[in-house]
TrEMBL record:
Signal peptide: none annotated. This is Glycosyltransferase. GO terms for molecular function: quercetin 3-O-glucosyltransferase activity; quercetin 7-O-glucosyltransferase activity. It comes from the Eukaryota. The keyword Kinase does not apply.
Amino acid sequence: MEKRAEKIRVVLVPLPLQGHITPIMQLGKALNLKGFSITVAQGECNQVSSSQHLSGFQFVTIPETVPVSQYERRPVEFVMKLNKTSEASFKDCIAQLLLQQGSDIACIIYDELMYFCGATAKEFNLPSIIFSTTTATHKFCCSVLSKLNSKKFLIDMQDPEVQDKEVENLHPLRYKDLPTSGMGPLEPYFELLREIIKKRTASAVIINTTSCLENSSLSWLQQELGIPVYPLGPLHILSSVKSSLLKEDKNCIEWLNKQKPKSVIYVSFGSLALMETKDVLEMVCGLFNSNQPFLLVIRPGSILGSEWIESLPEEVSKMVSKRGYIVKWAPQIEVLGHPALGGFWSHCGWNSTLESIVEGVPMICMPFIGEQKLNAKYIESVWRVGIKLEGEMERGGVERAVKRLIVDEESEGLRERAHVLREKLKASVRSGGSSYNALDELVKMLNFVHY
Ligand code: UDP
């Protein structure tokens, strides 16, 4: 059967952001290992370089005109514009691919936020599958929000009783945990959610999660959509692939090699979060005062008004040179798997969350926007492998959080639970595990729709 699959092509369409590119490339590699040829159709910004990849991968460009930098401030507007501007050129792109000799397309798999792809697939009579880079619980919340009136919701949410009300069928989530922060004005956001649901014509959904993390939300999703749902996560253990848009600084591994086991706090807020200079100063002071060694990722441009770290006062470099190390971009999975790692202070992006759980590393959770808040809630209250850091960034709070995570008695329980969860996740991708089986089912489906 796998021999037959060798000639079958799958087209992948990522959203051009790191946290979306990485898992869809991992999916591509997993399918490639099962014998499929992969075509990645990507926009002009944030392109994954073809040199990083394997044979069996082809890259084509969808010309579009929305600068990715717009996402940081106006995520909803960015996604809507991208969908409007890309549709026509994507159609041309598929038409060209179909003309190429031997380019038999079995299916278009597209990031859920690239919903324009659905119409193209329909036009060319090609099967399509949605790829979701967030959790099933996030989908549940989006479905709840899409049914609400934004004006009424805003008024209702001023009432503390409404804020603390549990969302039906979503224990322990309360209305105040719903993923609305950082998404801009609510009406366009709710409209986007409705648009995504309306344009859903795909015949299946692939999702980077696994049943041991959120079984009941996955059952809900399956029932709600009425089409097959394939939870394949964590994809990065199923198939690793190099897809970093920024250059990884491997020197930090040498620094980690010199640190004591389980002592280092690794701090990274992903590819999009922005911070103010005063908050970074408080953060570094707190890390330094905790007495634990710290590895800090500061992305170029992530401190507002500064190219990199030049806006930070002199005392920061003194503290870093005594007990810390700063990089612009880390080889995160390698860092999380290093024996010196004691904890991960994260923004709780879904990829970072999965990567941390897979390495059994407990977390300090400081969500910035959207579904990160949900992930943080689950990390702290459901899986109980992390603690939340809330309120203003302040050195005393940071110091206490690091000590709770790495030094205090509480840290043992966190580590133990993280270890147990890690084993469950690893089992899910091993032969006979739920994600392993879901991948087999997906491969069967792709072969079936093709022949
Ligand atoms: N990442 C990395 N090096 C860094 C920081 C992040 O390789 O210094 C990777 C991380 O491993 C993850 C991705 O960038 O795969 C970030 O995705 P996530 O969903 O956690 O957050 P986002 O960037 O979408 O907010």
